[in-house]
Amino acid sequence: MSVSNFEELAEHIGHKIVAVSYGNPKEPANVAIECETCKEVLLDFDNEGGEQKEQGGKKMEGLAEQILEDEFGIELDSFSVSQLEKISKLLAQVAKEKKGGE
């Protein structure tokens, strides 16, 4: 979770805030409150009672891929592992730069 106090939450006043779920729509693995303006998760919780709950500290395999496909329309089958690792590093750098520019 990225919001843990009054000041951090107050930064999102006036932004577009949404509630979303991830995983199986009938039994989501996770629900979150997100700021669409900043593309930031403000608060989220895993479904501890569902079939997709965390097991031994690891989320169900394939959940991240499903989120990328469902939320962003990204089909990962066409990428190699090395390409995905490069994309991951580039996205981390973009996020760091955007966060520094706020």
User: What is the overall pLDDT average?
Assistant: 78
Coarse structural class: alpha+beta
Sheet with most strands: 3 strands, antiparallel
Low-confidence stretches: 51-60
N-to-C CA distance: 19 Å
**Proportion of residues in helical segments:** 25-40%
Quickly count the helices: 3
Overall form: flat
**Which strand order spans the largest sheet, edge to edge or round the barrel?**
1-2-3
Query: How large is the share of residues in beta strands?
Result: 15-25%
SSE string, helices as H and strands as E: HEEEHH
Count of spatially separate domains? 1
Number of strands: 3
Radius of gyration: 15 Å
Could you characterize the architecture of this molecule?
- The structure is a single chain.
- This protein is an alpha+beta fold and 102 residues long.
- It has one domain (6-100).
- 34% of the residues lie in helices and 24% in strands.
- A three-stranded antiparallel β-sheet has the order 1-2-3, covered by helices on one side.
- A hairpin with a 2-residue loop joins strand 1 and strand 2 (27-35).
- The longest helix is centred in the last third of the chain and has 20 residues, at 81-100.
- The radius of gyration is 15 Å and the shape is flat.
- Residues 51-60 have low confidence and may be disordered.
